[in-house]
C-alpha cells in the first residue's frame, strides 16, 4: 500500500468511484467528499497528502476552495474539472493548484498527473534539497552555478539561468505566464508576454537538441510552461 493518502473532492458519484477504484488498484488509500465543506472537515481531522479537486462543486466554486486551502494547508492540489478553457486552467494554477486534469481523462493520465503532483510535494517540503537539480540529461548545480546537458557545460545568460532555476524548482509543474513574469521580471512588469516568449525561445536553443520539438521546456498552450520531469 502506498503511504500517500488522497482526498477525492467530486460531487459526481460515477467519477468519484472511478477515481477511487483507480487509486485503490495502484495501491493508494483515499477518502472522498462530495462538497467543499465535507472536504474541509476531512482535512481538519485526517492526514491528506493530495486533494483531487473538482471545480464545479455544489456549495463552493473550486477556485474559492483553492484560495481557502492555500491559506492554511500546503499539500498537493490536482484539479480535475470539465472546465477546459485556458483561462480557467491558468486561474486554478495561479490560485495555488499544482496541476490540472481535464475531464474526460484516462486512468493512465490520472496516475501520471498524480505522480508528478506527489513528486512536487516532496520537493516543496521543509526537508533540505540537493544543490544539484536534474531531469533527464539536464542538470543544474546551484552551488557552482553550472548547467550541463549530457555532461557538457552550457553557458546561460543571467535571465536564462533564472528562468531555468524557477522551472527546476517547480519540476513537472505548470507555471502560468503570470507567475513566471512576476518571478522573473517583478510584479510591476505587467502582462506583456513577448519578452517571456523571447526568453523561453532562447533557453530552448541552449538546452534542446531540437528546439522546435522540445524535450525539456514544454509549452502548455494558453497557460504557461513546464519543465518536464524525466527522472
TrEMBL record:
GO molecular function: phosphorelay response regulator activity; transcription cis-regulatory region binding
Gene Ontology BP term (one): regulation of DNA-templated transcription
Residues within the DNA-binding region(s): 130-229
Highest taxon listed in the record's lineage: Bacteria
Occurrences of domain OmpR/PhoB-type (ranges): 130-229
GO CC terms: cytosol; protein-DNA complex
Domain Response regulatory: residue ranges: 5-118
InterPro entries referenced in this protein's UniProt entry, alphabetically: CheY-like_superfamily, OmpR/PhoB-type_DNA-bd, Sig_transdc_resp-reg_receiver, WalR-like, WH-like_DNA-bd_sf
Keywords per UniProt: DNA-binding, Phosphoprotein, Transcription, Transcription regulation
Gene3D superfamilies linked to this entry: 3.40.50.2300, 6.10.250.690, Winged helix-like DNA-binding domain superfamily/Winged helix DNA-binding domain (1.10.10.10)
PROSITE patterns, sorted: OMPR_PHOB (PS51755), RESPONSE_REGULATORY (PS50110)
4-aspartylphosphate sites (modified residues): 54
Stretch forming the signal peptide: none
Function, as annotated: May play the central regulatory role in sporulation. It may be an element of the effector pathway responsible for the activation of sporulation genes in response to nutritional stress. Spo0A may act in concert with spo0H (a sigma factor) to control the expression of some genes that are critical to the sporulation process.
Name of the protein this chain belongs to: Stage 0 sporulation protein A homolog
Annotated organism of origin: Candidatus Faecousia excrementigallinarum
Species lineage: Bacteria, Bacillati, Bacillota, Clostridia, Eubacteriales
Amino acid at each position: 500500500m502506498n503511504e500517500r493518502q488522497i482526498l477525492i473532492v467530486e460531487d459526481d458519484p460515477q467519477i468519484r468511484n472511478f477515481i477511487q477504484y483507480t487509486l485503490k488498484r495502484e495501491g493508494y488509500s483515499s477518502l472522498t467528499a462530495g462538497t467543499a465543506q465535507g472536504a474541509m472537515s476531512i482535512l481538519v481531522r485526517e492526514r491528506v497528502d493530495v486533494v483531487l479537486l473538482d471545480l464545479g462543486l455544489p456549495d463552493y466554486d473550486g477556485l474559492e476552495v483553492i484560495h481557502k486551502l492555500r491559506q492554511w494547508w500546503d499539500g498537493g492540489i490536482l484539479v480535475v474539472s470539465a472546465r477546459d478553457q485556458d483561462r480557467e486552467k491558468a486561474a486554478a494554477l495561479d490560485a495555488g493548484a499544482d496541476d490540472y486534469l481535464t475531464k474526460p481523462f484516462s486512468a493512465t493520465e490520472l496516475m501520471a498527473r498524480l505522480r508528478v503532483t506527489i513528486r512536487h510535494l516532496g520537493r516543496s517540503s521543509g526537508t533540505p534539497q540537493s544543490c544539484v537539480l536534474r531531469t533527464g540529461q539536464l542538470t543544474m548545480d546551484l552551488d557552482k552555478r553550472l548547467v550541463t546537458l549530457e555532461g557538457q557545460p552550457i553557458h546561460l545568460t543571467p535571465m536564462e539561468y533564472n528562468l531555468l532555476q524557477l522551472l527546476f524548482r517547480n519540476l513537472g509543474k505548470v507555471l502560468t505566464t503570470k507567475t513566471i513574469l512576476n518571478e522573473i521580471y517583478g510584479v510591476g512588469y505587467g502582462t506583456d508576454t513577448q519578452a517571456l516568449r523571447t526568453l523561453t525561445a532562447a533557453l530552448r536553443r541552449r538546452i534542446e537538441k531540437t528546439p522546435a520539438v522540445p524535450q525539456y521546456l514544454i509549452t502548455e498552450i494558453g497557460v504557461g510552461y513546464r519543465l518536464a520531469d524525466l527522472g
